[in-house]
Amino acid sequence: MICPSCGVDNLPGSEECSNCQLSLAPLDRPVAQNRVERSLMEDPVSALKPNAPVTLPPDAPVREVIATMLDHNCGSILIVDGTGTLLGIFSERDLLQKIAGVHDAYAEAPVSRFMTAKPETVSATDTLAFALHKMDSGGYRHIPIVTGDKATGIISVRDMLRHITRLCKEY
Predict the structure, then answer these.
(1) What is the pTM of this model?
(2) Which of the residues 31, 102, 105, 139 has an alpha carbon 20 to 30 A from that of 6?
């Protein structure tokens, strides 16, 4: 990176100019080039207007969890204790990878046996880019929103796509 003060060409990623010690960190930040990039970089997760999460307790039988997913047309259920503290998430992927073809007598088993415990989470104030990065790097299609340790919402890749599509239509 070329120092704007003295013109010295510094190594990429340098925190300060090797010649004049000017901080280069603020100059190395990405800059939004369009409405979509600006939204991803600046808008909080709350901009997606996430719905309240569909939750069940850890002792709920898998049959009830699957029925709840079907009733609510959702791909995941948050597993919480009596105070709303997030314990885990049970998704379509858990069903396919941990149950289907592996366990014959799963219907009455507690969901806690098959859920993903301590899932990655975001807060309502995190940026959309941060949430999308977590989802992409972890391979998640759903990510819980928490306030402290309490489950307050959930977002999906579909929510992100709808948001981006809406921004594109506004051009």
Answers:
(1) 0.81
(2) 31
